[in-house]
């Protein structure tokens, strides 16, 4: 038996529409510095062109909401059904992922028209029609989905630009001037007592299905670092021969080192003995006090081994982050709205949100009792719960109203094109 | 501060020597049906030639025990140090794994001489010299290591023979005659109450480092099947189009189906509409009541989705297996000593050990507080704790004194050349 | 001793400048129908983005002429030296070929500025300064080089568009309307007497170094078809199971069929039993009377085997084409200037130039006495004289003043993205 | 109309039987030093196990002769039809070439029984029954086929042993003792006048189909070296940075260098600054005066470029070799019967047969008028006439009654596991 979905008040509905407009605008503003040619780039199968992100997020609203809700809805272009489907096999065979960069047509203008077309229909839907709670939830999912693609849009274009020997800047380098701070914040070890903790969320507020069911988890005493590992600390690992010492690496990690001949993180470059990092403002001198980023899991794990510590589990991370959360945590955190476009050195506050996604030692697995929903949207998270690792905390390009302490991001251990770093943890002695 | 290792009584030491002789003999008896040519085969990088197993297990005793314990020990052949090192990077670069089948020299006779040489030295060591507890533990590790290779020897030669269009039999097919039973045992659902359970072991008896530390784990109510999934049940999955329906598969699993064009388990063959299975006795008609085997994790998971259930976690498995264990479980189980060489239909007893390794939904990760030991033997387990899945329960080719309820085997999700199957689990309604 | 290079008359110099302007304009006019996004596409390592063609041809003039001839010449952008170098290793490591499509910057406008910058300098050089014969030759080489890239620009964008499920049209389909002719021209066998013939050219007029030295070649009696093989004839080959019969194929050709699972030429599509071909005007119904095109060498050779004939050698082709050449051959031929953009059915005239490049049985090898010149331009042809096959005759997208009877084009046997087809030949009975 | 095949005299038939026995015995004597394990080795897809060579040559006689000629012939084992078919697609899908090393069964003893079984049947056929000319020819083809596999047997086992870090010796190193000669024979340039020459053979004596039809070929004046290029000369090329200079290499050759990171020929090893070569007698010090061997075509071509010369065409080679042939050429040459197992320094005689196969600049193409025969044996040569290069002259492991001046061997340009070297040629100044 399915209960009738609760109605949504006019006020809530109106706030949803405002939020819809704000998030949709934000996506376009993130694409603003890019030319039609930039927006065409796909530098690896894991990444997508900007243009594709703009269209696919729109396709999500059209496919899962407009086509379901509006009688006799006429799609903008039937061909889009295939080419902007990401991975929903239940909707038909999606267009070949590695070839997304081959779609010069539809052109950028058509994609913007598509966005406007869908936005008008969505505005009518949210403005004129009474929606129920299920639809409210689905729109909210679509907006969170779009926010995920905002972050991907930035990390994907960063990767694409990193291939260009001219190291193009997404944003003007002059905005980026930054004093190298005197040194990193000292690292404190925070001790957390073991016990049974509640993990995950389940409630009225939006969260992804993979964040629940909320459940109890038994933890041992542990300690966790007060801040992220810095570039300077990671540089020591490099200079100590970290990439040459198999004993520091997981077996698959060492295979990765040997195959790729990696000697440093993906975006580091050495020019005449000085380290640089490729950033959204182009190639910039490495800053020792900043959190290290664009590590893959193998690198994060090897670094932790080198210092004789370990990564936290995702459960330890969540417990510590909730306990240590400052009242203004979200406002203070270095998230997308700060427009810093890169992680920043810790300054006093406890750095638990923003800057870089933190690799945990946890495999991405369903929480006890998890069930993917049976409809197409059910392909959203569950089918990826294999071979990936959980990251927590959001990054400098994650929107502030998108991140939560319970948020579970996930990537394969070899992937490093996200803003991903690490925080150390350890067992209490 | 390191305490002096405890002494080992003569009797214990004498039992160890007996065990050493028995296990070393068993390995050779398993190789007996094979010709020098068979023992040369390496059919994929994951597998090794029989000859290599015979030598590598011997190398383990020579490298970690004889070279350490016996003053001025002269190794049998210095070249063996490299070519029979499996993956101990701390001992130097091991010989290229995919090329183990290229080592026609040393020949089989030399390998047997090597075994005798090391066995004589080990017999002297265990027979004449007083050993301490640390050494006792190391010898026991070496023997358990050899038992692991006994199983691999069989699964590797099975894979190698499966490439040969003549489907050679490891053992005489006539020994294999078996009545097809009237039907599979009915499947019961056993309900287990949630709560805090102790997982893993830590004690006097030998276990691998990955089985500890013993720790407490919080489980919810769940239910688990009384027996393994059968060939007949899996055949229905095939016939229902299981390999054609993306919604049943994990994302990486569906990619595997598409890439390999798999339509059935690795060793199944269809001849004019009738299913056969390649076994250690050659190609044999499929038996509906037997547990399905040689599934990879993706297949096991997709099958569970198809029936609307799931795989157990390794913790659920361990708790259920310990609760439901029969007094004569180990004696009754279909393990190597039974010389059945294949899984058998459940008959009354609860099938929790032997027959096939059971894929669990758990990623292979360290237990809380786990630390790999710092010496070379420390590479044994820890460095593989990434990207693999845990299997439990042992198989029809696992030695009986090698398996335990706490035993954690691990393979990559795409691998299927072990005797691997599944048991269903579910959440209590 | 090097003789002073002969002077070039004002008139000749003036004609060279006109030609320079005409050819440079033609390249841009070919790019006109394309958007900045289209011009960014690189659909495989063998192909290059339109934008790259526009820049690389310009780079050729800047690198080999302006930088050598103009004292204190300031290059447009020093970074271009690497990124628009195709394969001249003697000028430094060229930018990674498969990543040319990753260069969103420099953008299209910058590339056009680059063209204007170089065109102005070239105009001054050719307009104001007395040039010698060597420079005249080098400019002419640059122009022929640009014409090669005009053809590549079209075949590369055709390939890129073929990946797009919407099959975009380079040109308006309505221009393309074409009546299906009543049937193909009947095929005549033309008999050519054996003897010693002169092959290749050497003289005042421009030709590529690989067309010489002119030399004598001994041919046997042979016969050659009066026209190209048609779509209709090739369709019969398909329908007769040509792609399923290993005996028709070269060993490497059959390996190609098995690996790619090819069942028809690259740009053929079957929609509900009807054949279509992807053309520069989008997906169009296959026309039986038109020459078959976009075959690779293996397909051309297998077709010839199927009809019991063979391909001509490049020497037979050249002798036949010269003997049978009509006075107005070049004017009548279906070349780029006709703006047909596709091969056309033979109509009366002997089809020896234009329509499709004709695969010959000859390997691409140096003519006797060939020596590549020692300077960087010497990398132009010689180093490719291995593993490729010669094609003759030009195609529907080859400029008329670029093609010659002695012209030797060359591609690898598996390549089919050029307008490539075949003409049958045979031994005289 | 087919003429009745001519009868064969008793004496000719008796000589054929003797030859059959001698060649079949020789194959087995070449396999004698090898163990069953050695005979199992397949170190790359291009190579085959010894055991497979022994069986496949036997399969050739059974398939093309016994099954055709003897009424109601019962094959030794029906399964062999597939597993010992090399590449005759017209006889059904051959067993996967890269998996030949997986066939531990049939075992060596069965293969020898197979040989005896077929030898007995062949002896009866050739001893008791009157055979005609066509059959005589086919048997002779089978014997030449077996001689080809004698050479391959040796080069394949050499490659397999080269993978083993112990560098096993096929033959006792003590037999191999050899004084390093005082220095290489001086190189003379021999001038050959241009003109029309007859190339290829056609006559009563056996030759492969690819050596005909005999035809006339027009050559220009050229010169050719009196001896092969030596190790010492090639060492200078290495030491001069030959493997670092792209201008010396063909485009595909340079791609090969970059991909494989080659720095020296395949079997060269540098140990503390001294060069060694892997030989059939194990790792031996490099001898400067010996012909360089195990070069691939790219290396041979690059070396020739480095000295400012070129490789001969296969036509130039044949003309020069015939003109300069000494009366006792074949008897003096370093061929298999000499049991030297390696090339030898030139000593007075003109080295045109034996030692190493000589890469020519010619592509492997059909001679004018060549037609493969229509039956299965017709797959013998013709279908390989693409992408390969011709080598001439035989090697130190080619049987003396197998090689001819007109003999055309062929390999892909990247292949180097044959005894392959080069002789320089040039245009007359």
TrEMBL record, chains A, B, C, D:
Pfam family, one: DinB_2
SUPFAM superfamilies: C-type lectin-like
Pathway: Amino-acid biosynthesis; ergothioneine biosynthesis
All residue ranges annotated as the DinB-like domain in the record: 20-130
Alphabetically ordered keywords of this record: Iron, Oxidoreductase
Domain Sulfatase-modifying factor enzyme-like: 188-425
Its EC number(s): 1.8.-.-
Signal peptide annotation: none
Stretches that traverse the bilayer: none
GO terms classed as biological process: ergothioneine biosynthetic process
Enzyme class: oxidoreductase
Keyword Lipoprotein: no
GO molecular function term, any single one: oxidoreductase activity
PANTHER family: HERCYNINE OXYGENASE, SULFATASE MODIFYING FACTOR 1, 2
Full protein name: Iron(II)-dependent oxidoreductase EgtB
Species name: Microbulbifer aggregans
